[in-house]
Amino acid sequence: MTNWIDFYDFKHSVIYVNARHRDVHYRTIAQDIRTYVPSPAARVLDYGCGEATSADVVAEAAAALVLVEAAPNVRAALGARYAAHPKIAVINADEAATLPPASFDLIVMHSVAQYLSAAELERLLAMFRRLVKPGGLLILGDVVPPHWAAPAAALALLRFGVANGFFWAAVGGLLRIFVSDYLRLKKTVGLSHYSEAAALEKLTAAGFAAERAPRNIGHNPWRMTFLARPV
Ligand SMILES: C[S@@+](CC[C@H](N)C(=O)[O-])C[C@H]1O[C@@H](n2cnc3c(N)ncnc32)[C@H](O)[C@@H]1O
């Protein structure tokens, strides 16, 4: 395993401590994203959607939802899960890059920026700037700040476990992460962290007017969500 896409392409990613955690995680994100869908006519793009087991919650509030996932096994599972869904399409990163300009009212990239180099993030922001409609919205979610990220992530997971009935599985999951490829990849490939100012600067440079949302999407209140509109 040499990169983060391989890490997430695992059949049972160690990131989710059990099936309940995975499902509550994706339901929480989907419910949060849904609040940003501007109208039932909206076209939505979720880039780096992961297993997206509650994508139908977002699709219900929109006209179309395009899921983009780079990890091939995860993408195949998404394709099977949503094959019969009339509003959901599943595509790969190359296909996303060839979509026509101004295709989406809402673009979401949640909990992906930390796995991208600065150059990769810039390339994706330029693509989102091209794909978002005038007056549309880009949500850059779960951006990891430079300090105390690991303890904050552990604490957020334990609290999420308490609230959703998987506390002991969360404790076990944290121990498992210590012996997984996560820490090795963190050392060799690295994770990208951004202060609020640095994230806003990236979005501004990519042609967006951006602000930090009052709260992060998902379960970790120490990470940041940014709302960016094309200028
Ligand atoms: C933590 S998961 C996020 C999944 C989902 N958006 C969520 O919030 O739960 C990270 C995602 O980033 C994707 N990813 C990692 N490196 C990437 C890269 N270089 N290009 C595109 N996607 C990448 C993985 O395939 C994975 O789906």
What ligand molecules are bound, each kind once?
Answer: S-adenosylmethionine
Average pLDDT level: 95
Q: Please compute the radius of gyration using only Cα atoms.
A: 17 Å
* Stretches with pLDDT under 50, minimum 5 residues: none
Quantity of strands, as a count: 7
Q: Outline, from the CA principal axes?
A: globular
* Largest sheet properties: 7 strands, mixed
Structural class: alpha/beta
Beta percentage is 15-25%
Order of strands across the main sheet = 3-2-1-4-5-7-6
Q: Termini, distance in Å?
A: 40 Å
Estimate percent helicity: 40-55%
Oligomer: single chain
Number of helices: 10
Order of helices and strands: HHEHEHEHEHEHHHHEE
Write the layout of secondary structure elements.
Layout: H1 4-8, H2 19-34, E1 43-47, H3 55-60, E2 64-68, H4 72-81, E3 88-91, H5 93-97, E4 104-110, H6 118-131, E5 132-143, H7 149-164, H8 167-178, H9 181-188, H10 196-205, E6 208-212, E7 224-230
Parallel strand pairs: 1-2, 1-4, 2-3, 4-5
Antiparallel strand pairs: 5-7, 6-7
Bound molecules: S-adenosylmethionine.
S-adenosylmethionine binds next to helix 1.
In short:
The chain is 44% helix and 19% strand. With 231 residues, the protein is an alpha/beta fold.
Notes on the structure:
By secondary structure, this protein is of the alpha/beta class. The chain is built from 10 helices and 7 strands. The chain has a 7-stranded mixed beta sheet with strand order 3-2-1-4-5-7-6, with helices on both faces. The longest helix has 16 residues, at 19-34. The radius of gyration is 17 Å and the shape is globular. The model has no long low-confidence stretch (mean pLDDT 95). The chain binds S-adenosylmethionine (SAM). The site of S-adenosylmethionine has 17 residues, from helix 1.
